[in-house]
Amino acid sequence: MKLHRKGVLALASGVLFALAGSAFAQDPAYPAYPHKTVTLITSSGPGGGGDVFLRNLVKTLGPKWGINFVVENVPGSGGANAMRRIVEGPADGSLLYGVSTQHVVVTVLSDPPYKYTDMQPIVNVLYDSPIFFVRTESPFKTLQDVVKYAKDNPGKLKFGAGTAASIDRMVVETFKARTGLDMVVATHDSGGQLTLNVLSGAVDIGSGDAQEVQSQVEAGKIRILAAVMDKRIGNYPDVPTAKEQGVDVTATGWRGLVAKKGTPPEIAQAWEKAIQLVLEDPEYKAFYTKNNGIPAYLPAKDFDALTNKFAADMDKFFTEMGLKKKAN
Predict the structure, then answer these.
(1) Phi/psi at 312 (5° precision)
(2) Model pLDDT for residues 99-149, shown as the tens digit of each residue
(3) Residue 123 and residue 135 in one domain
(4) Residues 261 and 221 in one domain
(5) Is residue 324 part of a domain?
(6) Within this chain, do residues 212 and 237 fall inside the same structural domain, yes or no?
(7) What are the pLDDT digits (tens) for 199-245?
(8) C-alpha to C-alpha distance for 213 and 191, rounded to whole angstroms
(9) Nearest-angstrom CA–CA distance, 191 and 162
(10) Are 45 and 79 in contact (CB under 8 A)?
(11) For the chain, what is the HEC assignment?
(12) Which N-terminal stretch is annotated as signal sequence (predicted)?
């Protein structure tokens, strides 16, 4: 019932964002665009990282650009449902997909009917701040506490992550392999669902993005155990990285936009200019700084290169981990 209510609230929020966009005249610094209503889809459920990213982006971008943005949640099948929605939709800039790395991972790891290569990168906006987190009452104070518990109690540790195609699931599988632990990896369809299960104690520890649990950290209900990055998170300088705690695991995640292959280059060019402007907007900058987003503007060409390199790296990773058969 709670998830249903969240879905209703998320839909209402999408309507409100659309209305907000129509209530303001376009800032003349922003480029012309062929559509006044644009749908942005996310494979995240309400409260997940992709959902939070898009809703907060358009909260600022809609009024500035004079566009009615509608955010639509299309979860399920590890992002395959969202890819289908894009590839079977128009290639005119009226429908875009807010992505992290999931659409690439699901393509590399399985054989979905539509692949990341059926879409084209438009622009990247932010990099994520991946973390491991626990409820405040958890007995785990460090990552080594988690490792020790799992070694002393084989098969009992429940480590929550996203779907098989998510970057946080990949991080958990890497953690499991490199520590040699016997533990349960609990799959979740959204970051919001995972956070609820960490809070309730249904899982012992979760893997996600710092922005997904920001409000719970502020409320004193969630504690970040480790930054899964090469360096500590700016807003949490006292939280050591996983590497600093003796577990060599890091993650790379981004937040960007893709569209159906064949979308005119003018669409990407307009988005490139708009994203550069909104990243400097005080309102949006305050949001992503507070929520641990790292500004990472990449034009379409560079975003495409990043995507292809990541796909090659993931293919190698999954093969080495035994999660994908070696090509003949």
Answers:
(1) -65, -40
(2) 988 889 889 988 889 999 999 999 999 998 999 999 999 999 999 999 999
(3) no
(4) no
(5) no
(6) yes
(7) 999 999 999 988 889 889 999 999 999 999 999 999 999 999 999 99
(8) 9
(9) 7
(10) no
(11) CHHHHHHHHHHHHHHHHHHHHHCCCCCCCCCCCCCCEEEEEECCCCCCHHHHHHHHHHHHHHHHHCCEEEEEECCCHHHHHHHHHHHCCCCCCCEEEEECCHHHHHHHHCCCCCCHHHEEEEEEEEECCEEEEEECCCCCCCHHHHHHHHHHCCCCCEEEECCCCCHHHHHHHHHHHHHCCCCEEEECCCHHHHHHHHHHCCCCEEEEEHHHHHHHHHCCCEEEEEECCCCCCCCCCCCCECHHHCCCCCCCCEEEEEEECCCCHHHHHHHHHHHHHHHCCHHHHHHHHHCCCEEEEEEHHHHHHHHHHHHHHHHHHHHHCCCCCCCC
(12) 1-25
Residue for token pair 């993650």:
251
Whether 140 and 235 share a structural domain: yes
Q: Quick: pLDDT tens for 238-268.
A: 999 999 999 999 987 899 999 999 999 999 9
119 shares its domain with 223: no
Only one residue has tokens 């399920």, namely 76
pLDDT value at 157 more than 90:
yes
What range does the domain containing 215 cover? 130-245
Q: What pTM, to 2 d.p., does this model score?
A: 0.77
